[in-house]
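note to self — DONT lose this again. spent like an hour looking for the file last time. sequence + predicted structure for the chain T wanted, 960 res
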Amino acid sequence: MAARLRELRQRAGSPTYRQLAQRAHYSIAALSSAAGGRQLPTLAVTLAYVRSCGGDEGEWEAIWRRTAAACAAASAPAAAAAEDRHGDGARPPYAGLAAFGRSDADFFFGREKLTGTLVEHLKEKRLLVLFGASGSGKSSVLNAGVLSAFSGVSPLVFTPGPHPLEECALRLAARAGVAPGPVRGELAAEPRALHRMVRQILAGRPGTDAATDPEADELLVVVDQFEEVFTVCRDARERERFVASLVHAAQAPDSRTRVAIAARSDFYTHCTRLPALVDVLAHAHHPVGPMTSEELRAAIVRPAARARLTVESALLTTLTADAHGRPGALPLLSHALLETWSRRRGNALTLAGYRAAGGFEGALTQTAEAFHRALSDDRQQAARRLFLRLVALGEGTEDTKRRVPRQELDDGPDTAYVLEQATRARLLTVDGDHVEIAHEALIRCWTRLGDWLDQDRDQERLHRALTEATTAWESLDHDPDSLYRGVRLAAVKDLPRQALTARERAFLDAGESAAAEQQRRGRRRLRRLRRLVGALVVLLVCAVAAAGFAVRAQHTVTRQRNEAVVLRAADESVRLSPRDPSLAAQIALAAYHLAPQQRTRDALLSALSVAPAGPRPVGHTPAVTADGRTLAMADGSRIDLWNMADPRRPRRLGTIGGDGVGLNFIEFTQRGTTLIGADTERRLRLWDVADPRHPRLVAQRPTGHSEAVYSVAVRRDGRMAATASYDDTVRLWDTTEPAHPRALAVLPGHAANVKPVAFSPDGRTLASGSDDRTIRIWDVTRPHHVTTVAVLRGHRHFVDALAYSPDGRTLLSGSDDRTGRLWDLGRLPRYRRLGVLGRHADIVANVALVTHGRVAVTVGVDGAVNAWDVTDAAHPDPLAFLTNPGGSVKEVRPLGTDGTVLTVTAHRLVQVWYTDIRRALAEACDRVRATISRAQWTRHFPRLGYAPPCPRRTGNDAPK
């Protein structure tokens, strides 16, 4: 039939498709597709084509009907085979991944309450915008629930697709018996056209009596998968006109239209950007949440009962537990039930059949993997290309399914076979001339498909754009002006040829031929131009180009020289800070102002590190109270207590005299009234420091460890402490009465030295790190029956440090493998590895989380103090990489919650660091005793204009 249409066009003088479109009032794409032969056009399009070419409409109507009958007869066997998938002819009571339709209403249970609410909403307000997560059952409740309740109302159901106005026009024109072209034009021209067209359709329906049946004189428009107006529709104006038409049709005073829209909840924000929708959204929207337990039981049991089947009680309990409270779980539940039904025992659905199908999430994955394994290697590649083509890549949202016309797919036998098998497995649905994924749950749950999508998303976007360009090229009768050229043509050349369809390869070949011809014409023009250009013009151009190049080169050299001077000065400020902190602060601040970048920022923060003036704390082990105001420094067997309210000028409060036995570790209780430590003789010591000026030892006792005690941790309430030892164990202590600590439990389990221990903020768990490269999480809610909750693996060397975030959901660890790691402990016993903090050249000796857990600090033997923004713990961002002139850094402790930290070097030196650049900039000039002189400026910033960052400072202006 298509060949005869093309012959008719030739006999009419071969008019262009633009001329035919003007005569027929149909789009170029619709007319060219009719003559393409890939799919049977509608009768209206065929007659419009014939009429435009001067043919006999009566003859062609007979030709079209014979062709349609032949196509229907050819597709009947395939449809019958797909319907009888299970071999026994029984209709399954569950829909699987597909949504329930109007014909499935007898098997649709569990949403009666929601359906009633939505029906009342539509009757009262006429406009409903239904939001729900993918897989929450939006389409099913509209088609099988709401539409069934409006049995007397004529429904108009469609999805928007890439051209929502055209889709709407096609449906309306079919109802009105008119050509869709003018209808589409009217809808695009003004929003009121849809309302008028609906009234025209209803007025022409025979046998309706609005007086006896008001609902019979109305039209119910259902727009499913409304998110397609954002994911596949590229025309913002068409999108806004479509939405405005729907809203006006429902809100008009004499409205005869009820409109129900179903959209994914993650597109709610997108909907608020549509002017016509945002004003009514507050009163029109309704959420679809997860089913309750009772609703789930109804959805499981009642369809089976309708089919004279029973559901085993163990299966019902398991399914309800698996699906309860999980948004988007309904397609997984329905598919699992369908697969269990196919494995039924007599008339019973059993738990054994459910498990054989793969379980709740495994059933879908098992079905998809079984389909994939049954394919040969070539057909597996064809399957990959097919499924990737059926996914619309998200832009800040989840990926969605994409409805694809059959003509977009290749005609090869591999593609046809894969399509048939995927349809039989109910992974894909074929609706007329379109193919789509049965449900978006397949995108979320099939790991293999997720891996395909993640391998090269940019390449997939290029491929999708190529497909759209090919369709446009074909619709314009291979117009050369629509071919790719230049950068776009070069970009798509990298796409694998085997991934392209024959249509796309033809489009690229035509583009390359056109580009080659354009290059040949360009070369010919260039040769003619060269013969016309005189020698004087060439010399003038060369002279101007040389002058311009010289000026640019001079500017480039100056800029690069100035940048090198600034960076060198920034590095010098770090080396200068121990000797002259005032001058170092000004040099670093000036460098940052002249070249604000990572390196100068790090230099500024490094130069502003506080080495306390006057009497200063020294020692090897620090302990800081929760408010950061009191510091305890252990130096050998002696402990000094310091007031750190002003870190630059600490004041000694008191001293705990030494008895000759060294201290390994000390830690304050949360209130700061008790100090707990362990000495080199493996004894536990407790001091009362409520009055820091008169501290006193209140208890000491043997820990029972057989090797050295590495660290001590104290629970936030102060009632429990933990000691970690090189004897591979952790011991718990009851410190409710500091004067009488009692041993609670010994925690074995590690295979090597246990080093760091840390209590979670809620005190329910304890983390311990070991030289066996693992981190153990212990449940200490019952101290006499402690159990291991999880064992974290990921470090390649000894674990040396641990720190919890304030909410207890994230753990930070440091290791001899030169990295820090972040762990998600929010769903114990399951854990998840998050980001890795690198950048250290040697062992990560200690770690801390500051600024309410948003900043991680790692220190190492390499002398580096590194800060990271861990707001997104899975992808930490470098915040600052600071240099410590004092050498290796062994300890780090937070000083309060403002991002300030205290470090201790291997040489027993204490320094205080800022991690917030804004605070550093605000306080930098407070360090200055005298403004940098011109001579000093010239020495550090040669050939740069004198611009002191802290002017008018003298020796008398130094902060008191």
